[in-house]
Amino acid sequence: LLITKLEPGKIFFAKNAAPLIVAKDANGGIFFASSDAALIGVADEAAYLDDGAYGVAGTDEIKIFANGKDINLSFSKLAKDKSYAQKEGYKFFMEKEIYEQSAVVAETLMGRIKDGEVSLEKIDAQALEDVDEVIFCACGTSYHAALAASYFFERLAKIRAKVEIASEFRYREPLLNKNSLFIVISQSGETADTLEALKIAKNARLKTLAVCNVDNSSIVRLADATVLTRAGIEKGVASTKAFATQVVTLWMLALQIAQAKASISKEELKSEIAALLHVPQILNISKEPQERIRRLAKHYLHGHGFFFIGRDIFYPLALEGALKLKEISYLHAEGYPAGEMKHGPIALADERLFTIALMPQTVLYEKTKSNVEELAARDAYILAISPEEFELSDDFIKTSKQAHPMSEFFEMMIILQLFALEIAVRLGNDVDMPRNLAKSVTVE
Ligand code: M6R
Q1: Ligand 1 site, residue 327, Cβ cutoff 6 A
Q2: Is 240 in the pocket of ligand 1 (CB under 6 A)?
Q3: Are 166 and 194 in contact (CB under 8 A)?
Q4: How many helices (H) and strands (E) does the chain have?
Q5: Closest Cα to residue 313, out of 370, 358, 366?
Q6: Are 206 and 190 in contact (CB under 8 A)?
Q7: Between 20 and 30 A from 405 (CA), which of 86, 247, 394, 436?
Q8: Measured from the CB, is residue 140 less than 6 Å from ligand 1?
Q9: 211-250: per-residue pLDDT in tens?
Q10: 84-283 with 288-426: one CATH topology?
């Protein structure tokens, strides 16, 4: 994030691809930033420039042009709340954001479930009736949320779902079908690869939808419609609450389409909604799991790598757990489908290979167990995360028995986030500002 208060003199600027926001305060001060997170509490109102805009700013005036003509910027009020900028007793923003997840998911759900049905504002599920395929496109953690969403869309809404990594999609000359709905997922709304992928979909005349955390961001302004995830400002470079709110939002979207298409029964819808409403409770955790994970973390500082494994929706969660760990601990970690280990990676198994096994009780427990047993038989060091005792594990984190897979998903998600955090802290790393990473990747 860049923020500059102008000193006397003039500054010339132009907007091309990377985000640029112009803001003002009550005293005539003019500011430039790449995200409004930097402006909140500093400036009062902001205007979001489009590509091709350019101009000149003095200490108290600003002129903006596009295509050789003056344009009038429309400024909107910025929020005044700076509480996100304080750690509120936590050592790291990432830690604070992990514990905030219960409250922000409650916010994500707020007003979106009415009379036993999901009703996301601005989504007319009937208008999506001719959609016969959904293409999700995103990067990093948002890509993992997309992958999780593909399971909901096929299972609940009975719509074919494809998942694309934006940096691959934009150069592989994809064949696109006009009846596909193109859904981009982004915390920042400014990720260059995702934005370019969205432009390709728009040029191919697909219907587009953004699932995004930042209103007025470039992706939100370009997409035909947006569902905001309402995670609030996320400061930690390693995404936590943004992921939780993305998954919840996409789950709701799949359910809303399922309702409109009557592709799930009334009882199933009722149980899905009950599970959705239960998420804030699952995410409302005491400090006890973190204390326990802190003690376990010392076992994981050496070795030659980590495999996070899971099946079904626990596979995207395994990918996300591995990404969290590599981002902030700088240790090598891979997420893998548990059933795929025998097709190659099991060759790496020895006592210095750490396996983090997601073993939910509600999804393919016996299958996952037998995959983990194969690794244990090759002496891999196993951390099992499960409600079921697993006698072959070296370390064990017991989760609670739950009726719905997503309840297990969110309980394990927090464990993985805390696991990454505690290892990184033990290694003395800067958890909030990991090396080589930026919060918003506005270049390709
Ligand atoms: O803002 P976006 O969601 O589009 O960002 C995508 C990735 O850059 C982002 O998720 C990145 O992987 C995070 N650092 C993950 O913690």
Answers
A1: yes
A2: no
A3: yes
A4: 12, 21
A5: 358
A6: no
A7: 394
A8: yes
A9: 999 999 999 999 999 999 999 999 999 999 999 999 999 9
A10: yes
What distance in angstroms lies between residue 410's CA and the mean position of ligand 1's atoms?
19
The number of beta carbons lying within 10 Å of the beta carbon of residue 383 is: 22
Pairing of strands 354-358, 306-310: parallel
The two structure tokens encoding residue 279? 């998420």
pLDDT of residue 321: 98
Q: Nearest 5 degrees, angle CA 220-CA 221-CA 223?
A: 65
For the record, the structure tokens of 251 come out as 């789950």
Residue 155 neighbours by CB under 8 Å, 6+ apart: none
Q: Name the pLDDT band for 31 (thresholds 50, 70, 90).
A: confident
Q: What is the model's pLDDT at position 87?
A: 86
What is the third-level CATH fold of 84-283?
Rossmann fold (3.40.50)
Q: Could you tell me the CATH superfamily of domain 288-426?
A: Glucose-6-phosphate isomerase like protein; domain 1 (3.40.50.10490)
- Helix 140-155 and helix 314-329, axial crossing angle in degrees, nearest 10: 170
Q: Tell if the pTM clears 0.85, that is, is over it.
A: yes
Q: How many degrees, rounded to 5, is the angle at CA 331 between CA 326 and CA 334?
A: 60
Residue 97 CA to ligand 1 center (angstroms) comes to: 15
Instruction: Tell me the sheet residues that pair with 309.
Output: 336, 357
pLDDT of 37 over the 90 cut: no
* Model pLDDT for residues 340-361, shown as the tens digit of each residue: 999 988 988 898 899 999 999 9
Residue 2: pLDDT band with limits 50, 70, 90 = low
Alpha-carbon span 301 to 290, nearest angstrom: 17
Q: Which residue type is seen at 184? A: V
Q: Please indicate whether residue 229, judged by its CB atom, sits closer than 6 Å to ligand 1.
A: no
Q: What is the mean pLDDT of the chain?
A: 92
Give the residue extent of every domain in the chain: 3-81, 84-283, 288-426
Dihedrals φ, ψ of 417, to 5°? -65, -45
Q: Is there a contact between 299 and 395 (Cβ–Cβ < 8 Å)?
A: yes
Q: Is residue 1 within 8 Å of 35, Cβ to Cβ?
A: yes
